[in-house]
Design goal:
The protein is of the alpha+beta class and about 290 residues long. The chain has 12 helices and 6 strands. The strands form 2 sheets. The protein has a 4-stranded antiparallel beta sheet with strand order 4-3-6-5. A two-stranded antiparallel sheet has the order 1-2.
């Protein structure tokens, strides 16, 4: 039930650097004005989202002023560029068309895809995935970690005489994370432990402990397997966001394919191939004739 990456997120990332406009809502707080044009709370919120990590480096008390200053800088530069006629340049017009396209894509995803996804669709997708999901096995084990093989052998001898595993772990284990809990490691899945430890635990039956010390990079272990089970399937509430994004991704793909099918699309594969073909190496110039003797 892995969620697909949001297509809307991809679209939004393409135009995160858009300059902010001076449009304001009637109820917006106005923080500054440039030639009469307001810088509002809405403008600040949009710029704050754009700056992101940069603002996190500033004290919270300085962030609002920093954002307003950034908007002032952008507005002043934008006004100067407009005065110089940059808006009429071919490169500006091409860039604006790209931004327009990206914004339309984002709004399409928001209004035609995300808005169309219902809770019932999410539940149906979850049920489908859950029905075909084979949860991996996981183990619940305890261990006693010591520095030497002889110490581990002595512990095994105590256990063979009926010693209490949890009590011995509390007294002798060198693993500070589990010793206080009687060596309890909780449940773990394949790949969570180092290979030697995992292999030894896997070979045990519930209630058994290893008959010989197990060597790993951490030292010598005595391992007891408590139980094996299949991992519980996550509830819908736990994975709702991921499942919803999976549904959004599928619906987006369906709508995109339908739109492409209805459109007349012509791709010049030869031109693409020619543009990607590496340039031929330059022919070396002929060597100059040797001077006559």
């Amino acid at each position: 039930m892995n969620g697909h990456r949001s297509h809307r997120t991809l679209a939004l990332a393409l135009f995160a650097g858009l300059a902010l406009t001076g449009a304001a809502r009637a109820e917006d707080t106005v923080y500054a004005r440039i030639d009469g044009q307001p810088i509002t709370q809405t403008d600040v919120a949009a710029m704050t989202a754009t700056l992101g990590p940069q603002l996190a480096q500033l004290p919270e008390s300085a962030r609002l002023k920093a954002v307003v200053d950034r908007i002032v800088d952008m507005r002043v530069i934008a006004a100067a560029a407009a005065k110089d006629g940059i808006e009429q340049s071919p490169s500006y017009k091409a860039r604006m068309e790209q931004i327009r396209t990206q914004l339309l894509v984002s709004e399409f995803v928001k209004t035609q895809v995300e808005a169309a996804v219902t809770p019932e669709m999410v539940k149906a997708r979850y049920d489908k995935d859950a029905a075909g999901y084979e949860p991996p096995e996981e183990m619940h084990a305890r261990h006693i970690l010591v520095k030497t093989e002889d110490e581990a052998k002595a512990i095994l001898a105590d256990l063979a005489k009926g010693g209490d595993f949890a009590k011995i772990a509390e007294e002798k284990s060198q693993d500070p994370g589990s010793a206080k809990n009687g060596g309890d490691l909780g449940f773990f899945a394949a790949g969570d432990m180092v290979p030697e430890f995992e292999k030894a635990a896997e070979a045990l039956k519930p209630g058994e402990f290893t008959k010989v010390p197990v060597k790993t990079q951490f030292g010598w272990h005595v391992i007891k397997l408590e139980e094996k089970r299949k991992q519980p399937i996550p509830s819908l509430d736990q994975v709702k966001d991921q499942v919803r994004q999976a549904v959004v991704g599928e619906l987006f793909t369906q709508k995109l394919e339908a739109l492409k099918k209805a459109a007349k699309i012509e791709v010049d594969e030869a031109a693409i191939a020619a543009a990607q073909k590496p340039a031929a190496p330059a022919t070396p110039a002929p060597a100059a004739p040797a001077p006559a003797k």
